[in-house]
Amino acid sequence: MDLKDKLVSSFLAFENGVDANDCIHDIRNEAIKTFENKGFPSKKEEAWKYTSLNAILNHDYSVFSNKEHMVEYKDIKHYFIDDIETFKIVFIDGVYSSHLSQTTHGPMDICLMSAALTKPKYKAVIENYFNKVAVQDSLTSLNTAFTNEGAYIHIPKNKLVEKPIQIVYFSTGNEAATITQPRNLVVVDENSHVQIIERHQSLTDNAVLTNSVTEIFADKRAIVDYYKIQNDNLNASLIDNTFANQHDNSIVSVHTFSFGGKLTRNNLNFFQNGEHIDSILKGITIIKDKQHVDHNTLVHHIEPNCESHQDYKGIFSDRSTGVFNGKVIVEKEAQKTNAFQSNNNILLSDKASINTKPQLEIFADDVKCSHGCTIGQLDESAMFYMRSRGIAEKEAKALLMYAFSNNVLGSVKIKELKNRINNIIATKLGVSIGFDI
User: Fold this and answer.
1) For residues 53 and 48, what is the distance between their CA atoms, to the nearest angstrom?
2) Rounded-to-10 torsion of CA 196, 227, 142, 202
3) CA-to-CA distance for 402 and 369, rounded, in angstroms?
4) How far apart are CA 223 and CA 277, in angstroms?
5) Count of CB atoms within 10 A of residue 19's CB?
6) DSSP string over 419-432
7) What whole-number distance in Å separates Cα of residue 341 and Cα of residue 326?
8) How far apart are the first and last CA of the chain?
């Protein structure tokens, strides 16, 4: 039995095990039908032309876990941003870990999807927002069909969340191979501001496949800063689907830092439903060996006087592969749009590769839109200049690569997170540099 058939046949048992008060049974049933009809995407589809899932679909994955596997905090402490106070929503093998988490209710809800799906107090928010912006492709539908747990974040009007929120998913490897389907819902009402850090981390050498979906809703004048840290081991694969729906004068930024994992696919979709909106998509990728990272982005400008900024940097060595497929759509009504898209890459090996495809579809005539990509190697003249001043070759390369990614790191608003990313980059480059960018 292949993985698709196993998932479809497991769905009924999954549904029977869900709380009877759960309010999305009908949505789940429609979603599994969509997945059954479409199956997993293949390279025959244009959006997946450069990314094949075949190698990660051959494992005999355990579909869901029914118990929490205990993990000691001392063993996972270094995966948290622990030098600042944060709210924490932590899951072990897809099951909520209360002793590792710090959630809250009251003026704002930073808690669990499972609670939101079953308790009457959350019903209105679920009915208004759940599965309303997510595009119903095969993988998103698969996640919807098996939705049970994840982060539920609702920030009411005029609220500045005083500390960041960390959402962390750990996989322990107690199964030979595991597939998880976390679902996050983030609703930020008018004039509110929240910062979120998300991480998926495998604690095992066993195969792990995560198919994650996050829906973000930013109301008028809301600000959402979302950071994704992807630095997993070489047997873990992540398909991350993020959908953002923005209204007037809102700002949503998503920074994606991809440093590890066997295969990582980031599907990032922004929909601008209002005026004076700013959408910010930035990322840094540093990979080696046979790692594969694919960024697939869409910004849909629907109304006038809005902006979007996409800036992705990639550094590839050994036999690693990068993909950037970025699309900006500007509708006829979206006059005065300012859209910028850039993808710049450095190849450190003759066997590393990057497939990049920036795209603009413009139906308005009064816009400022630009896109571009570069693929090259380190600047030899800059290397010579630094070597001539006594800087060793390894450190010179590292300095140039730090400078290459500087404008992405510069927009990270959480100092402690920025320091952590700097340290990860230094580790990836194999150097120690005593300054912050």
Assistant:
1) 9
2) -100
3) 28
4) 10
5) 12
6) HHHHHHHHHHHT--
7) 8
8) 50
- Say if residue 436's pLDDT is above 60: no
CB 315 within 8 A of CB 286: yes
- Using DSSP's 3-state secondary structure scheme, residue 71 falls into coil
**Are 340 and 310 spatial neighbours (Cβ–Cβ below 8 Å)?**
yes
The pLDDT tens digits for 72-83 are: 888 899 999 988
Both tokens of 388, joined, read 């001539």
* Predicted confidence (pLDDT) per residue in 357-389, tens digit: 999 999 999 999 999 899 888 777 887 878 888
Q: What is the pTM of this model?
A: 0.95
Domain boundaries, the chain: 3-393, 394-437
For 4-52, the pLDDT digits (tens) are 999 999 999 999 888 888 899 999 999 999 999 999 999 999 999 999 9
Kindly state the tokens that stand for 432: 């120690």
Contact 245, 132 (CB under 8 A): yes
In angstroms, the CA 163 to CA 155 distance is 13
* Residues 190, 222 contacting (CB under 8 angstroms): yes
* Amino acid letter, 185: L
